[in-house]
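Repro:
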Amino acid sequence: MLSSIVWNVDPEIFSMGPIHVRYYGVLFALAFACDYLIFTRFFRREKLPLPLLDTLTMWAVISTIVGMRLGHCLFYDPGYYLAHPIEILKIWEGGLASHGAAIGILLGLYFFCRKYKMSYLWLLDRIVVVVALTGFFIRIGNLMNSEIYGIQTSLPWGFIFERRHEVVPKHPTQIYEALAYLLIFFILLYAYVKKANLLNRRGFLFGAFLVLVFAFRFLVEFIKERQVDFEEGMPLDMGQLLSIPFVLLGVSMLIYSFRRAPESGGVAKGSK
């Protein structure tokens, strides 16, 4: 009978001189590639010009990466990075935060919509579908890196992360989150394709995404190991504290979407 899983995967796939190809980077790139293909279908379905999608992809990728990096630096170790700002640029050394990614993409897409005169909520209702899928790939990347795992467990699927010098089974919270985000992706995709009445309520899919993702994130943090020293002794860790505002924003968006009249089609700026 399975008592635990010994996990000792090398995070590096191969290297050629100074070039090191890692699972995390490959999965990150694969996530954006899948997102692009899915959004291509969205654009064709709604008869939008594909060149605009290329521009949107550039804005989304840059906003996500910048947000993830700054989120880690400012939320989890601000003292060090404010004292050594050049270290913020060393993204290859690791240190990315999903809450920072959320803030980054919200800001980036806001300015994108202002520049190209698109409805902000129209875009958010669609972008969250692929963002959920991105979360799946990123958490699998965390698993390959043997990072961001849980506390000790006696469950038969506990992982012993040997590369982190662990000797007892820990909750593979990367897998829990990856599966949750994949399920949320399919739920949102189904709503987009099959539930026009919900899609026409601007802000509904965006609100549903925030509630589902960050409520789950809040709960799973209870079985995660603390990521930084200052979280020790805190009743809620940083991930939970950052999740609460997103859940509240999601609930607000759901209420807002049902209080206003449904809108069908169109990406005009006036339909915010």
